[in-house]
Amino acid sequence: MPSLASAAARPLPHVRSALRAALALVAPADCAGCGAPDIELCADCRRRLEPRPLVAALADGTPLVSGLDYEGTARDVILAFKQSGRWRLAKPLGPALAAALRLAAAGPPAGAAAVAVLAVPPSRAGRRRRGYDPVDLLVRAAGVRVSKPGFRILRSSVQQKSRGRAERLSGRLGSLGCSGRWAGARVVIVDDVTTTGATLQEAVRAARAAGAIVLGVCCLASTPLRSARL
Fold first, then answer.
1. Do 35 and 188 touch, CB atoms closer than 8 A?
2. Which domains does the chain have, with CATH numbers?
3. 185-208, pLDDT tens digit by residue?
């Protein structure tokens, strides 16, 4: 059992988040894409984040739209945004998600008032570690707001990284619930990154179980198995 002294030496999660944010304001950062010194994101890397919408489908046939390929510069910037506390990178990533939202909702995000945007929630551990919700920040940077109340975590999922698609789907099943407020409503479900699509498929299941009409799902970046470039 850790001593009181050792526990006191470790900042609480919200304190760590505040310290990271304060440091980001005063300390020069290297480009999140290429490492160029003293700049958050260089012009060349910004260009590499221009939207490149992909259309694919989840295993259950639900349309999936993503704004970028999860590789190269996009992958490096997204990892810096999610794992290194560089929350200001949401702004240059926002246009790619906005493009995906437009296609998934079949209309401009800002004008799609009749379409609710439901966000996949972060894990409890991820929220504590980062001190912010990356999907919520990205949706705001895309020019819309997450509709609430939305999903709730019913149970923690098992570790997914070493598992195949079928195992990930079964591991996620029943892990999310959705507010009954959206019964009969047209919704789009959004996440930051998808690989196998297991998390988004569980969100679709939960939304439909609550009576929502799911128009499609979208994400900032993906590595889909079946896609068509627009």
1. no
2. 51-229 (3.40.50)
3. 999 999 999 988 999 999 999 999
